[in-house]
Design a protein that fits this description.
The complex is a heterodimer of chains A (297) and B (298). With 297 residues, chain A is an all-alpha fold. Chain A contains twelve helices and two strands; from the N terminus they run αββααααααααααα. Chain A has two domains: 47 residues, no CATH class; 229 residues, Orthogonal Bundle (MetI-like fold). The longest helix of chain A is centred in the first third of the chain and has 34 residues. The chains are: A mainly alpha (297), B mainly alpha (298).
Chain lengths: 297, 298
């Protein structure tokens, strides 16, 4: 005794059925957990004891947590250098690849720069652990030719973060290169032709045409690399496990340890909320800027 | 030659390709590119050559870039250890295929509905879904852990597969594609009385090869390499993924007496890279496009 649906109703019904599987997943694994994480962050909550609401206690503890400042300082240092090097090296590589080159050579080099993108951070770190060894690693061996004393890459507080950053640049600058190359190739050729007819020199062309037209891409790369860098985890846990001491411990590694090593879920959720706030701000910034930018299209 | 001196600048564009003579800046950037390419290739070359060296040569300096004494048997050793390396591989294949196939289906289904079917609250629902792009997994993982515990899914592959199926970007990608298709295509189907399911399966989906390929590549790579969820949810050795096993158990990989030897570890990593390498070689152009596209579309 089903009432026959009007065409409009049956279209709507089909729509809801089609989005249903994805939406159920979204509700269970994204929407509910983010709300629940906020709730847990207000509790004294671990897996063994009973849980109870403690108001903003976890958040006031954040302010007194010396390690939190350390891990955020580490994360910001990592983010600053990784984003700067990845973006600038990616841009230089892209501009050189966009130079007059036989396409066979261009594609060959592009593939080489691209390949590390496909290799898991965890594998990269396993390989680089050997490369970074003070006495047996090939990095110190080749630096020896430049009369550099063997560097204690992974055992020294000063050097460990540099080791993490260098490895990250090896892994990720190829992605920036790829996006910049696509951006450069999207700039219409007639802009350059017109500029040359008007007698613009290469420097003017670079600053007046290439840079302005590439700026949305550069901004985009800066933001997504910053978001990614704030979440750095895989490479650090494998390469240094946050050490020596806390020298390379990132915020996500800290959250992971508080949540799943000492099972203080309430405090870990409050820590996670700080990261969420930062990423939210960065994403909204990216969203607003990309709407404003007239150079798109 | 032009009267003006050629700027020793690194800027160019393809029109310059029509000029006949190489400038110094071309030579310079070719040289720099070559140096950069060598630096980028070295860690992977070291991995590969070490994996073929005799076990005693793993720490040899200077490194032997071209092995003369090939030890293919290094590739058999990971399978002869306490670490169930073959099982890790099977686990990775199982998880990656489940997530990839599941996502292709769910994302195209939802993307099609958001693009071509009219229903109340369509746009708000889509925007809410997209908002999940700014929620990092590190924030939601604690509640997800409680869900998995409640349903007894800790230390099962479901704990990895189920949360990984949700991909708002994938829905976005498919929606953009389906939105761009001409309406005539679907009008014709409606006239023929095709159901929405048939329109989706027989008209929309076959046309969507390009975005489906993009999504396949991105999801395959992300899932094959995933690390965060596995280390939280999987703890038995025979349930672990390759990333997890190689990162945390590599000291135990290898036959008794030679566990953790660099040659054996590098053989294990090389094998773990083979599927990704194969996909790369088979669909190189598509893959590069897929990644560049995510950059531009973001």
């Amino acid at each position: 005794m089903f009432k026959r649906l009007s065409p409009k109703q049956s279209e709507a019904l089909a729509g809801y059925i089609f989005i249903l599987p994805m939406y159920i997943g979204f509700l269970i694994f994204v929407l509910w957990p983010i709300i629940e994480a906020g709730r847990i962050s207000l509790m004294d909550f671990d897996l063994l004891r009973r849980s109870e609401y403690t108001g903003l206690d976890n958040y006031t503890s954040l302010l007194q947590d010396v390690r939190l400042w350390t891990v955020y300082k580490n994360t910001i240092v990592f983010t600053f250098f990784a984003v700067t090097f990845n973006t600038s090296i990616g841009l230089v590589l892209a501009m050189m690849l966009n130079q007059r080159l036989p396409s066979l050579i261009r594609n060959f080099y592009r593939s080489i720069f691209f390949f590390p993108i496909l290799v898991a951070h965890a594998f990269v770190a396993v390989i680089w652990q050997f490369l970074y060894q003070q006495d047996t690693g090939i990095i110190n061996y080749y630096l020896g030719f430049l009369h550099v004393e063997p560097i204690p890459w992974l055992s020294n507080i000063q050097w460990a973060m540099a080791a993490v950053i260098i490895m990250d640049v090896w892994k990720n600058s190829g992605f920036a290169m790829l996006v910049f190359l696509a951006g450069l190739q999207n700039i219409p050729e007639h802009y350059y032709e017109a500029a040359r007819i008007d007698g613009a020199n290469e420097r003017n062309i670079f600053f007046r045409i290439t840079m302005p037209l590439l700026s949305p891409t550069i901004f985009f790369i800066l933001v997504i690399f910053t978001i990614g860098a704030f979440q750095v985890f895989d490479s650090i846990i494998v390469l240094t496990n946050g050490g020596p001491g806390d020298a390379t411990r990132s915020i996500v590694l800290y959250i992971y340890e508080v949540a799943f090593k000492i099972f203080n879920m309430g405090y870990a959720s409050a820590l996670a909320m700080t990261l969420f706030a930062i990423i939210l701000v960065l994403t909204v910034m990216q969203f607003i800027a990309s709407r404003r930018w007239v150079h798109y299209e | 030659m032009s009267q003006q001196p050629v700027m020793p600048s690194s800027q160019k564009h393809t029109t310059r390709a029509r000029r006949k003579r190489f400038s110094w800046s071309d030579v310079l950037s070719f040289a720099l590119l070559t140096v950069a390419a060598i630096l980028v290739a070295m860690p992977l070359l070291w991995m590969f050559s070490t994996s073929l060296q005799p076990m005693s040569e793993g720490y040899r300096l200077p490194p032997k870039w071209l092995p003369t004494d090939f030890r293919i048997e290094n590739y058999a050793y990971p399978f002869q250890s306490n670490v169930p390396f073959g099982q890790l591989f099977v686990n990775n294949v199982k998880i990656t295929l489940s997530v990839t196939i599941g996502q292709l289906f769910l994302c195209s289904l939802a993307g099609f509905a958001f693009a071509r079917l009219r229903f109340p609250l369509r746009e708000p629902l889509f925007i809410l879904l997209l908002a999940s792009l700014m929620i990092p997994i590190q924030v939601t993982v604690i509640p997800i852990f409680f869900i998995m515990r409640k349903f007894g899914l800790i230390d099962t592959h479901w704990a990895i597969i189920l949360p990984s199926l949700v991909n708002a970007f994938g829905v976005f990608l498919m929606r953009q594609f389906f939105k761009a298709l001409p309406q005539d295509l679907f009008d014709a189907a409606t006239v023929d009385g095709a159901s929405y399911a048939r329109t989706f399966l027989q008209i929309a989906l076959p046309l969507a090869r390009a975005p489906l390929a993009t999504l396949t590549v991105l999801t395959f790579n992300a899932t094959w390499n995933s690390f965060f969820l596995p280390i939280i949810f999987l703890s038995s050795w025979d349930k672990m993924t390759l990333t997890q096993g190689i990162a945390f158990l590599s000291g135990a990989i290898g036959p008794a007496g030679a566990t953790g030897n660099p040659s054996i570890r590098m053989a294990a990593v090389t094998m773990a890279l083979i599927p990704v390498l194969l996909v790369f070689l088979l669909a190189q152009r598509w893959i590069i496009q897929a990644f560049a596209q995510t950059g531009i579309k973001g």
